[in-house]
């Protein structure tokens, strides 16, 4: 994502060999929903059983 979208045609990012430009939906795959629901269900199961959910947690110290 960029501050201004679409990315300007003269942006140097378009020419960089170490940059891969993808659309926002590039993570969508045939199995996306199946895998996402697996994470949700496992985290929900952890929560219901009194455990801290363990999948795809945000690390506030590392800010991701």
Automatic annotation (TrEMBL):
Signal peptide: none annotated. Keywords: NAD, Oxidoreductase. InterPro entries: D-isomer_DH_NAD-bd, NAD(P)-bd_dom_sf. It comes from the Bacteria. Residues 2-25 form the D-isomer specific 2-hydroxyacid dehydrogenase NAD-binding domain. This is D-isomer specific 2-hydroxyacid dehydrogenase NAD-binding domain-containing protein. It comes from Paenibacillus allorhizoplanae.
């Amino acid at each position: 994502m960029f501050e201004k979208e679409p990315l300007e045609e003269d942006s140097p990012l378009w020419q960089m060999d170490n940059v891969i430009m993808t659309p926002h939906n590039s993570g969508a795959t045939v199995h996306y929903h199946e895998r996402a629901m697996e994470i949700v269900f496992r985290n929900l199961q952890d929560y219901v059983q009194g455990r801290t959910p363990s999948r795809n947690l945000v690390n506030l110290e590392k800010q991701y």
